[in-house]
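Session log. Operator J.P. requested a structure for one protein chain; no other inputs attached. Running the standard single-chain path with token output.
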Amino acid sequence: MHEEKWEKYAWIDENDQDSWDKYEEYMFNQSLDEPPLLQSAIGSEDYIDGMSAPRIDPINPEMAGWAMKLRRKARRPSDVRGRTEGGD
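Structure written below.
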């Protein structure tokens, strides 16, 4: 028969000062330096593309996803110029 080795643990009551000290030691940032701000590795549009169903242009259904995004990026500068020229 196989006999297991038992390990002994020291238990500390949750309301004991030692438990509060351990809580503060492990749950709070102890360094004096400001922690670095987290930055996303992807943009919001890439996140939406990854989480959503594929986008389909109703006028050109063959242009989905990346092709539609390229077309939209290419069209943006001309849309802005057209609005400013037409408004003047």
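Operator note: The radius of gyration is 29 Å.
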